DNA sequence: CGATATAGACAGATAATCTGTCTATCTGTC
DNA sequence: GACAGATAGACAGATTATCTGTCTATATCG
């Protein structure tokens, strides 16, 4: 390895992807804390991203987020304690409970969208909207393959 | 929020960045496991990325990785148990110890570089080298600002 | 020499995941 | 209608990756 380290010649793509990702997260979840939701953490996005307006089953949320039911149950439990979601029995299936956003949860959902858009607008301001659109296009392309 | 969820209209940039990042990580650390290093986890990259050939201080590694000394000590401890790094007193400073890659650690370092390059080559094969270069360029630009 | 800063070890906490096991409930087949 | 097997999700416990706070040893500066 001589005198070099991994990042000396050329940063790995993983490194380059992680940096803006973590910055976005800091901005969005910092903003959420500033808006009065300090107990919402990045992991909770797994819930907010997929939850349906009528309520979602724990199992469905876990599957959509690509994690175990147990892990999702842990996240939902935290959100329920904070009053962001409430669970109710599923009238269609006695085994299941439906997890649904409360009014407070919907405010977080709105804030998440607004803060994401703001963070993205800041990037557009820095590198130009064309450059950002290009980035989006390549990442969408990558997501498909 | 009507019938939609966050990802319905337009995926957040954070979501788009996370996907390829996690895929890369799976590929690289899966490949590392296949090459006989199953105990090297993504978090260990914080050590491999910055460690100097002559050895690095724990404090320096922690600072470069942007984490606490305690967290870095935990990572280094795991690597030392696996025989990837060894620590020795710093002759220049009696308080300090130098963390250095062993021969086995250098093999991991080499594998990390090779696997990262391979993963990147697979992306180039999928979207074209020009597209990948564009992605890199935008991400480098983002990293500066 | 003494004050202060630094290196890093130790103790303990927390977040975010996992596996494994268990009960309740549903559904399809005989 | 009963029973077998699948599914929903709760409970127990473990692991990984981080943190804060405190402590000792050593260095350095005035």
Can you put this structure into words, describing what you see?
Two copies of one chain form a homodimer. Chain A has a domain of 78 residues: Arc Repressor Mutant, subunit A (Orthogonal Bundle), CATH 1.10.10. Chain A is mainly alpha-helical and 145 residues long. Chain A has a three-stranded antiparallel β-sheet. Chains A and B meet through helix 2, helix 6 and helix 7 of A and helix 2, helix 6 and helix 7 of B. The structure holds a DNA duplex (30 and 30 nucleotides).
Task: Fill in the keyword field for this structure.
homodimer; 145 residues; mainly alpha; Arc Repressor Mutant, subunit A; globular; DNA-binding
Task: Summarize, please.
Chain A contains seven helices and three strands. Chain A has 145 residues and is mainly alpha-helical. The first copy, chain A, has a domain at 39-116: Winged helix-like DNA-binding domain superfamily/Winged helix DNA-binding domain (Arc Repressor Mutant, subunit A).
Question: Which range best describes the helical content of chain A: under 10%, 10-25%, 25-40%, 40-55%, 55-70% or over 70%?
Answer: 55-70%
> What's the end-to-end separation of chain A, in Å?
34 Å
Q: Give me the count of strands of chain A.
A: 3
Distinct helical segment count of chain A: 7
Major interchain interface with per-chain residue totals: A-B, 51 and 50 residues
Structural class of chain A: mainly alpha
Mean pLDDT of chain A: 92
Spans of chain A of at least 5 consecutive residues whose pLDDT stays below 50 are: none
Q: Tell me the name of the CATH homologous superfamily of the domain at 39-116 in chain A.
A: Winged helix-like DNA-binding domain superfamily/Winged helix DNA-binding domain
């Amino acid at each position: 390895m001589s005198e070099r380290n991994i990042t000396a010649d050329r940063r790995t793509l993983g490194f380059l992807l992680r940096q803006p990702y973590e910055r976005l997260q800091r901005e969005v979840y910092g903003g959420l804390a500033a808006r009065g939701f300090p107990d919402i953490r990045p992991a909770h996005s797994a819930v907010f991203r997929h939850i349906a307006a009528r309520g979602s089953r724990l199992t469905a949320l876990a599957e959509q987020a690509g994690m175990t039911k147990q892990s999702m149950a842990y996240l939902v439990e935290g959100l329920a304690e904070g009053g962001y979601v409430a669970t109710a029995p599923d009238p269609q299936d006695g085994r299941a409970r439906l997890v649904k956003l409360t009014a407070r949860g919907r405010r977080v959902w709105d804030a998440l969208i607004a803060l994401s858009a703001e963070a993205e607008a800041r990037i557009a301001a820095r590198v130009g909207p064309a450059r950002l659109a290009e980035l989006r296009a390549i990442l969408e392309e990558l997501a498909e393959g």
